[in-house]
Every structure is written in structure tokens, then in C-alpha cells.
Amino acid sequence: MIEKIEKLKIKAENDLKSCVSDKDFEDWRVNYLGRKSELSDILKNIKNLDQEQKKVVGSLGNKTRIELEGKLKDTKNRISGTIGTSKSSEDYSLPSRHISMGKLHPVTLTLREIRKAFVSLGFQIAEGPEIELDKYNFDMLNIPEDHPARDMWDTMWIDEKINKNGEKMLLRTHTSPVQARIMENQDPPIRVIVPGKCYRYEATDSTHEWHFYQVEGLAVDKNLTFSDLKGTLYEFAKKMFGSETKIRFRCDYFPFVEPGVDMSIYWEGKWLEILGAGMVHPKVFEKAGYKDKNLSGFAFGMGPERIAMIKHNIDDIRLFYSNDLRFLEQF
Ligand code: PHE
Prior knowledge:
Radius of gyration: 35 Å
Number of strands: 10
Largest sheet: 7 strands, mixed
CATH architecture of the largest domain: 2-Layer Sandwich
Bound molecules: phenylalanine
Oligomer: single chain
Mean pLDDT: 91
Helix content: 40-55%
Low-confidence stretches: none
């Protein structure tokens, strides 16, 4: 008798594994726990057994029944959690199960806003390589080998420093090399922005990351002036931060522009610097092979993380890349 109950239990458990629908579960219940089931039969006939047997068979039989009922409930719950059987298959008014949706990263959202603003001002969008040649990252931008300005961009060099033409390679430290690449390949007029990832060999803190985005801008044409630079960036600032936004330019130095400036916006009572800019340096035109004396242009470079930090009141740049959902889900 005991052996029979044990075998029955194993069979019931095995059969339960193939149950998926409400009907499967009901059939299984009738078959193994119902009034006419083998187990009920055994328990009903207990009275015919002797005293000793009654005790053993009775307790094992009841224990098995309780265990099987528990297993049925657990399996049903588990299955209904995955395929929505049991109650929910009939009750269409129940709320659906939660599906977690992905979201765009705050930096992606900011990049899209920046793109949109410049596209509406007639700029095109270009990209360049993240693994860059020393030549484009520095030389073509009027930053020669021994120039102190190279200190401004502590560089991550590619281990094999030499590509097949014998040139040094690095992870670009800014998006400005794409200026040179575009001028080499395209005739003016040029109006382009270049969003992309940059890398610098430096310690991280709340305002510095070793990898970050930049958006470069370049306009080249006949008779472009500093007023065009100011007007373009003013329009951009208003589109990005609101039509009342005030901007301020101050002198700054970048080897590839002359004059060079930085631009700040007035935000919640403070001037906050958001980009570097200037008129394209004649040496840069010369190196890019632009001979036309009447050409002039302006360039600018900004950090979208910094812009997102200002707009959303974020106090630590490292939050963008630490993959904490509590942060990311707010955008
Ligand atoms: N490339 C500069 C930087 O990384 C920014 C810049 C771009 C400045 C274009 C002037 C013109 O700081």
C-alpha cells in the first residue's frame, strides 16, 4: 500500500510538469485528487486495514494529498505568471502584466535636441573615427608635436602606435579632427555638426569623465564673420535653453581658432560655460588645402553631458555612465 502511494505521487508530479492550461490543471486535479482518484480510493478503504496499517497508510495518504495540492497551486501560480492562464485568461478586465520598456539615455536625448537645433539652422550632420591619427587630432589643427597646447589633451594612445603608414594612432581627445577631415574631402560652403565620443587620459571626478561626447561645429564660406558665429550660437542657445536665454562670450585660447572664445549662458543666477569656439585659424585652412583667400569660417565644440547637467540639474557627470536605473529611469 505504501509503495503504491509513493509511486502514485511520483506519477502525479511528473504529469503535473506537462500541465499548462486551466483545463490541464483541472483534469490533473480530478485524476489525482478527485473523489474517484486512486488516492481517494486508498483513503476510503483504510477502514478495512488493521490497526497498525491504518495509522501508517492514513498518515502517508493524507500527507501526499496535501503535498500534491500544494504542488498544483505552486505550478498554477508559476505558469499564470508567465503565460497568463488561470483566472486572467478569462477575465479580460484584469490589468496586463508589466512589460519593462527601454528608454533613451539622457545624453542621447540631449544629442538629439542639439542635432535638431542645428539642423533647423541649416547644418548637416557628419561623423568621424574614434580611433584617430595623431595627424588629425593635433597636427592638422595647428597643434605641433612640441606645442604646449598638447598638454590640454592628455591622450590615450593606441598600444600599437603605428598604423600601416607609420602614423601614430590614439583615441581622439576631441571631435575637432573631423573639421580637418571634412575640409580635406569637401569644398565650401560647409555647415556641419559632428556629434561623437571622445576620450582623455584623466582622473574622473564630478565634472570629468575619461570618455564623453562632444558636438563639433564647422561653417566655412566666403565672408563669414564673427557676427555669424555669435548669431548662430545665440540662436542655438535660445532653442536649447529657452527664448529668454542670455549668452556671454569671453576670450579663450584654442590653437585652431583665432580669435578664440568660450561661451556661457546665464542660468539660475550664474554664468555657466557651455562651449569653446572661434574663427577657423588660417593655418588650419592652409593644412586642409583650402587656398582661397576669401574663405573664412567659424568652429565650435560643446559637451552634451555638461548641457544635460545644466538642464536637468545633475551634479555629477559620472552618473551618466554608472548604469544606475534609479538615475536613468528619470528621463
Ligand atoms: N576642441 C575643443 C575642446 O575640446 C573645443 C573647440 C572646438 C574649441 C572648436 C574651438 C573650436 O576643448
